[in-house]
Write a structure and sequence with these properties.
The protein has 236 residues and is an alpha/beta fold. The protein is built from eight helices and eight strands. Helix 8 links the parallel strand 7 and strand 8. Bound molecules: zinc ion (ZN). The site of zinc ion has 8 residues, from helix 2.
C-alpha cells in the first residue's frame, strides 16, 4: 500500500525534524556536567547514588537529616538546573536517587520498613511565584518520581506545607536571618490523607542552614504530624 508507506515516511520524517528542532531548542546535555548527547550521564548519576549521609545543619530541626551529596560540583549544578533552568527531566533522576536512599535508610534501621508504617513524603514548601516562574515545583516532582520508583510499595506524597504571606528569597541571608525570615511563616494545609501509622520524611532539594527544614518540622508538629527525618539531594 504505497499511500500508507508514504504516510508513514512523512510521519517518520516529521518526527525526525521535530526531534532535530527540539535538540536545537532544548540542547540534549547532561543536567549535571553538561556533557552533550545525554540528559544525565553515568558519572553524574554516580555522584548521587552513594549511601545517604548524616548532615548536622547549623539550625537543627531536631530530627535526623540525610543528604545524597554535598552541594558542590555536578550535584550542585544539577539541583540548580532543576530549580532555575527548567530541567524538569531531572526530577526523575532525583526521585530514583531518593528511592534508593530510602531503601538504604531502611537497611540501616534509620526508618521503619514499609510493613510497619507507610511512607509519606512531604515536600518542603516552595514560594508559589518562584515555582510558577520556574515551571513547576521540582521538589514535588522529584518526590512523586521517588514514589513511582518505590512501586509497588504504596508511598504517599503530600505537598501540605505552604508559606504564610510573602517570604523573602533566602539567598544571601545568614542562618539567623533565614531563621527569622521563616519563623512562623510555614503552615500545614488541611489534608485528607494523614491517617494510620506513617513514616514521614520531609524532602527538599538543597539544605543550607536548616532553617526551612526546622520551620517545616515545627509546622508539621503543630498539626500533629511527627517527622521521622529530612532527606535532601544536596547539603551545603
Ligand atoms: Zn553528567
Amino acid at each position: 500500500m504505497p499511500e500508507r508507506v508514504a504516510f508513514v515516511s512523512v510521519v517518520v520524517g516529521t518526527l525526525g525534524r521535530v526531534r532535530t528542532l527540539l535538540d536545537l531548542v532544548l540542547p540534549r546535555e547532561c543536567g549535571g556536567c553538561e556533557a552533550p548527547g545525554t540528559l544525565w550521564c553515568a558519572r553524574c548519576a554516580a555522584a548521587l547514588s552513594g549511601e545517604p549521609f548524616v548532615v548536622s545543619p547549623r539550625i537543627d530541626p531536631g530530627v535526623p537529616v540525610f543528604a545524597l551529596g554535598a552541594h558542590t560540583g555536578v550535584a550542585r549544578r544539577a539541583v540548580i538546573a532543576a530549580k532555575e533552568r527548567g530541567r524538569r527531566d531531572l526530577a526523575h533522576q532525583f526521585g530514583s536517587a531518593w528511592a534508593r536512599a530510602v531503601s538504604g535508610l531502611r537497611v540501616r534501621g534509620e526508618i521503619d520498613p514499609p510493613e510497619l508504617s507507610r511512607l509519606l513524603l512531604v515536600p518542603a514548601p516552595t514560594r508559589g511565584r518562584a515555582a510558577r516562574v520556574r515551571g513547576g515545583d521540582p521538589v514535588c516532582a522529584a518526590a512523586r518520581a521517588a514514589a513511582v520508583a518505590l512501586l509497588p510499595e504504596p508511598v504517599a506524597v503530600d505537598p501540605i506545607l505552604g508559606f504564610v504571606g510573602p517570604v523573602r528569597d533566602s539567598v544571601g541571608l545568614s542562618a539567623k536571618e533565614r531563621s527569622r525570615n521563616l519563623s512562623g511563616r510555614i503552615r500545614v494545609e488541611p489534608s485528607r490523607r494523614l491517617g494510620g501509622p506513617r513514616t514521614v520524611l520531609l524532602v527538599d532539594d538543597v539544605l543550607t542552614t536548616g532553617a526551612t527544614a526546622t520551620e517545616s518540622v515545627r509546622a508539621l508538629a503543630r498539626a500533629g504530624v511527627r517527622v521521622d527525618g529530612v532527606l535532601v539531594i544536596t547539603a551545603a
